[in-house]
Design goal:
This protein is an alpha/beta fold. The chain has two domains: 4-280, Rossmann fold; 301-546, Rossmann fold (3-Layer(aba) Sandwich). 36% of the residues lie in helices and 18% in strands. It is built from 16 helices and 16 strands. The longest helix is centred in the last third of the chain and has 22 residues, at 451-472. The relative contact order is 0.10.
């Protein structure tokens, strides 16, 4: 609980906010956030927010956003009315970054009402017709109505703008609730629109995060819930499915980190909702990164490098601002107009608009190893190079295989193959002869943290290698498979994944196995930060330069 002085300060701020909303011309836009533990923000840490530059200010109250909440299960914590948006104790959910992102784009005041409870089901706890368990639907309805009534009593005009929903992890374990999720979600949405007298209320349904261990050992269950959620969104023009499986996740150590986003993931989670909402009202416009001029001479030959992989190839925890502030890295933060760059990251979450200048282009002010990779090649005189990057940090190696898996919406092979083909054809259409110089794929992350996947990683990857050569009609296409040290853990260590990858490369003369074992130490298991990603790019480039 806040101290008396802190409480009085917060109360004063709320009074000012309410007064501004009451006398302003624009009504307050009200957003509802609801769901289970990944909406609560379980295993996020306020103290860690400052580690992530794009979000570093969010530990402090946001005095321009109103916030009312009720969280938990047996013993719920309650905001006791409206207060400035801020962390709810030592944890927080997606509302922090959502509030900041939306407030920057709107002139009207905004308010957030949040009701979330971990380990709860749509089939029972959130059931509008026959609530059981913690009976969250009637509890949430009362809290929302009370919060809105408080605005009315203060003569604050408001309009309901959106309902952000992130839930389903618990329904997937119930053999009655799982097949009924689509029907139950439709009823849930209809009930809120009816009970809040808001027939056109827009819903934003967040994807369950596949980057966690649950994305592997509960793959079919999660697929069932995703399929139901996507079906509801496809049938209702006022429901949007929000991709979140690419968001950051902390791995290992504390119990629960195998299925919760953690600090950075929650911050990104909120940005996803904010961008989706702002798109619907025409306020989210991407800044175009345009090449100043086509950097290659007419009819010249271009070497095209394909970079692919999961979280570290994507650049999950490498931030552009850290490049700008680190001596020796500054140039990497600037767009390089000598190299054309094309990308699809996060499984299509963010894609380039044609060919752009090579530069930091990640979804959350992030970048990948492509920057230092290109710089290393240029420093030794390589010119006329282009880079195309295809990543999905929420995927596993079996998603990249031609066979795919039972989670069909995660199958990436055809999209990957088409991305490569289109990249080659784009350059040919501009009059260039194109040499596909190699595919650089980084492993050692999600797959090596789960025994069955670790045991199959080399075999699965080689099936993808073989198929790309067939489909591209390039039987000698060179693959560079880089590997960071696998997780050192009893049980997992029964599988010598390094040995298996080495053996695979030894039997294939066109595979180079890169043991990237001397990267700077990272703070989190599996995930490279800014120095690690920069060094990885150099390692990849040097492996290419050393290939006969």
């Amino acid at each position: 609980m806040p101290s008396n002085s802190a409480f009085r300060s917060a109360l004063s701020l709320v009074i000012l906010l309410l007064a501004g909303a009451a006398y302003g011309q624009e009504p307050t836009r009200v957003f509802i956030f609801a769901g289970q533990s990944n909406m609560v923000g379980t295993h996020s840490r306020v103290a860690d927010i400052q580690r992530f530059p794009p979000f570093a200010s969010l530990a402090q109250p946001q005095t321009d956003v109103l916030f009312s909440y009720k969280l938990g299960r047996e013993e719920m914590i309650d905001s006791q009315g409206w207060r400035p948006l801020q962390p709810t104790g030592d944890f927080f959910g997606p509302e922090l970054s959502f509030g900041q992102h939306v407030a920057k784009k709107l002139d009207s005041p905004i308010a957030i009402i949040k009701i979330a409870s971990g380990g709860t089901t749509l089939g029972e706890d959130w059931n509008p017709d026959n609530p059981g368990g913690f009976k969250l639907y009637p509890l949430a309805l009362k809290h929302i109505r009370d919060s809105l009534a408080d605005l009315e009593n203060k003569n604050v005009k408001y309009q309901l703008e959106g309902f952000m929903w992130h839930q389903g992890e618990n329904d997937m374990f119930d053999q009655k609730f799982k097949p009924a999720y689509e029907k139950n979600l439709k009823n849930f949405i209809a009930s809120w629109r009816r009970d809040l007298n808001a027939p056109n209320l827009k819903f934003y349904v967040g994807e369950l995060c596949t980057k966690t261990i649950w994305g592997m050992d509960n793959r079919d269950n999660m697929y069932a819930i995703r399929t139901a959620q996507k079906a509801v969104a496809a049938a209702d023009p006022l429901v949007e499915y929000i991709a979140t499986s690419h968001d950051a996740v902390e791995i290992g150590g504390e119990e629960g980190l195998h299925y919760h986003y953690g600090t950075l993931g929650q911050l990104e989670h909120g940005v996803n909702y904010a961008q989706a909402y702002l798109r619907t009202i025409g306020k989210e416009v991407r800044t175009k990164r345009v090449l100043k001029a086509w950097p290659y001479a007419p009819n010249s030959k271009i070497k095209l490098f394909i970079l692919a992989g999961q979280r570290n190839m994507e650049g999950e925890r490498s931030f552009t601002s850290e490049l700008q502030q680190t001596q020796g890295y500054e140039k990497l933060a600037q767009d390089n107009h000598q190299i054309a760059y094309k990308y699809s990251v996060g499984g299509g979450f963010k894609e380039s608009t044609g060919w752009e200048p090579l530069g930091p282009a990640g979804p959350y002010e992030t970048f990948g190893p492509e920057l230092s990779f290109a710089q290393t090649l240029q420093e030794v005189g390589h010119a006329n190079i282009a880079i195309a990057k295809f990543t999905h940090s929420g995927s596993q190696i079996n998603d990249w295989t031609p066979a795919g898996s039972s989670a069909k919406d995660l199958n990436l092979y055809e999209k990957f193959h088409q991305f490569i083909q289109t990249s080659i054809q784009d350059l040919k259409d501009k009059g260039h002869d194109v040499e596909l110089a190699g595919i650089f794929y980084h492993v050692g992350e999600n797959d090596t943290a789960f025994y069955p996947y670790r045991n199959n990683a080399a075999r699965w990857l080689h099936s993808t290698i073989t198929k790309t050569r067939q489909d591209l009609a390039l039987p000698s296409l060179q693959w560079y498979v880089s590997q960071q040290p696998p997780v050192d853990q009893e049980g997992l260590n029964r599988v010598d994944v390094t040995g298996q990858l080495t053996a695979m490369a030894e039997t294939d003369p066109h595979v180079t196995h890169i043991k990237a074992f001397q990267l700077p130490p990272q703070r989190e298991k599996l995930v490279l930060d800014t120095p690690g990603v920069v060094e990885l790019g150099k390692v990849l480039a040097n492996a290419y330069l050393e290939t006969p």
